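Section 3.1: Structural characterization of target chains.
Under the original work plan, the team committed to producing a structural model for every single-chain target entering the pipeline before any wet-lab resources were allocated. The record below documents one such target. The sequence was received from the expression subgroup and is listed exactly as submitted; it comprises 205 residues.
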Amino acid sequence: MSLFQDTYRTLASRSEGVFKDKGSKFIAYAFPMSDETQVKDFLSETKALHPKARHHCWAFRLSPARTVFRVNDDGEPSGSAGRPILNMLLSQDVTNVFVVVVRYFGGTLLGVPGLINAYKTATKEALEVGEIIEKTVNDIYSLRFDYLLMNDVMRIVKEEDLHLLKQDFDNQCQIEFELRQTQVNQVVGKFEKLEGIILNYLRTL
């Protein structure tokens, strides 16, 4: 088994879960996400669906390395909402996922233990309904080269079955391609043997 893990688990598409306790209703919406800028849109969309809900508590976990996360209790007692949502993302080992749980208050206080259970269970329901898939961790590279090198470059693209994201073929050509991290050394090594190319790492997906 390799020490390097180049796969991660995430949601294939949006999903919902519901939990009820003592008249309060908790509706969880789970979204696949790729970057933190999407949080505002997900929240706006959810608040538009539930403008009269008392709380919209949320958490997300981001990046294939699973190192980026945030939580928000949105007025619930500290640690009773956002953290339980995040803990469920951790226990299900999913990343690049945003979950917001909408609460309609039923008139009876649940206490912190009751809230923790409610937000955790609603999140669990949403994740269990959703389809969890495994994705590979991929690096994006750009490659610039003279047109005369076209055949050599495209031969490597074909040999390694690279997924091209962009291509611009003129006197000076440029391609962007996606590369699974376990392939990086092998593929980059092949390209670097060509004279006169400029290879740049752009980002990781």
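The helical segments are 38-49, 82-91, 111-129, 150-159, 184-192.
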